[in-house]
Amino acid sequence: MSRPRSLTKIRCATARRIPRLNQNYHSYEHDSSPSYEPEEDVILAAAIKHVPAHGFTSTALSSGIRDAGYPDVSANLFPEGVFSLVKYHLVTERLALSRNAPGAASTASGSVLDMVRHLTLQRLHANKPIIHRWQEALAILAMPKHLAPSLRELALLSDEIHFLAGDKSVDTSWYTKRAGLSAIYASTELFMTQDKSPNFKETEDFLDRKLEAAHSWRRTVADAGQWAGVQAMGIVSALRSKGVRV
């Protein structure tokens, strides 16, 4: 008896991952996107639509599999379980920044700091439809087995924002700016999960305070190592607030 065609496709996709090679790199460590097979992409895109109702859960993932027309065994495509769903949201919304970013003329007319603020807010606002579920996602991201890829995705987001904002730093500030924005974004995202103000105005104000404080620190702290240390402590504090023992 021949195997069902869909099962054959799934087993082939599970056994072999073909990376996409036509990507632009913003830095020596920046990979623009992971290699999602068509089956994975379709399923995860369908599953995300169920997150507002079911959260970042196996129920949402299973619903996405059924909506996409695949058998239940397709869950084997996602050995990391619901983390795959959270990461898909992070990756797709990060990549959406480059598609929706202001043009070069707008970048040239505004300061890098203004553009960083604009892009950071744009990324935060992408969480609006699922913000009532985002604390669940943060708990998944903070699990020890997921912590390294979670922090890497945060670093990629910071790199993406600075690149799109027109930051042309080539000295040690390249690192300190990205470390600083990672800490700012993590704390602002957490703040947003508890913000009940209209259109998340308090989150916007919180971000402005953090960005201004960071800008002031970079003007007054001459030692880049000290600045990086301050930002590292910010990331540690954000992780501890999510329940991670660090």
Task: Please provide a written account of the structure.
The chain has 246 residues and is mainly alpha-helical. The chain contains twelve helices and no strands. The chain has helices spanning 5-15, 38-48, 51-54, 58-67, 82-100, 104-109, 112-125, 134-141, 144-164, 173-192, 201-220, 224-241. Helix 10 (173-192) packs parallel to helix 12. The longest helix is centred in the middle third of the chain and has 21 residues, at 144-164. The protein is globular, with a radius of gyration of 19 Å. The chain starts with a helix and ends in a 5-residue tail after the last helix.
Rounded to an integer in angstroms, the radius of gyration calculated over CA atoms is: 19 Å
Beta-strand fraction estimate: under 5%
Low-confidence stretches: 1-25, 220-225
Shape: globular
- The SS-based structural class is mainly alpha
Number of strands: 0
Oligomer: single chain
**Biggest pleated-sheet summary:** none
C-alpha termini separation: 54 Å
Q: What share of residues is helical?
A: 55-70%
Q: From N to C, what is the helix and strand string?
A: HHHHHHHHHHHH
**Number of H- or I-type helical stretches:** 12
Mean pLDDT: 80
